[in-house]
Amino acid sequence: MVSLPVGTAMTNCTADPRVLLRGMTPEIDRAALRADDDQALEDRILRSSLTTCIALGEQVRRLEEWRLRKAEQDAKMRELICQNSDAIRQMAMLEESLRQMTLRAEAADRGKAEAERSAAEAL
Predict the structure, then answer these.
(1) Domain residue spans in the chain?
(2) Which pLDDT score, from 0 to 100, does residue 74 have?
(3) 10-34: per-residue pLDDT in tens?
(4) Taking the CB of the first residue and of the last residue of the chain, which one, N or C, has fewer CB atoms within 10 A?
């Protein structure tokens, strides 16, 4: 059993037991230092883990913001594609309409030329 110096237990009764035992023996001192080192290492690991968790949380937040922006851009792109498809359909309809008008104009020109030729022959 370890004997405590006089007054140690009474004055430090709420202190860490490692503190109470310091100075008693070299083995106890080394054990207390190792325990302090272990606690300091544990504290550093916890701080490092917390810092890493905070950094990961920030990266997740940025990733979610990027995903939202990407979804908005994709929606805009789909809208533009639909508008472009509509414009292409309208262009095709206009081209067909123009082709039909050209055919009718050519037929009218042929009919007019035929009528003029017939009128010239009749004279």
Answers:
(1) 8-122
(2) 96
(3) 444 545 555 555 556 666 667 666 7
(4) N
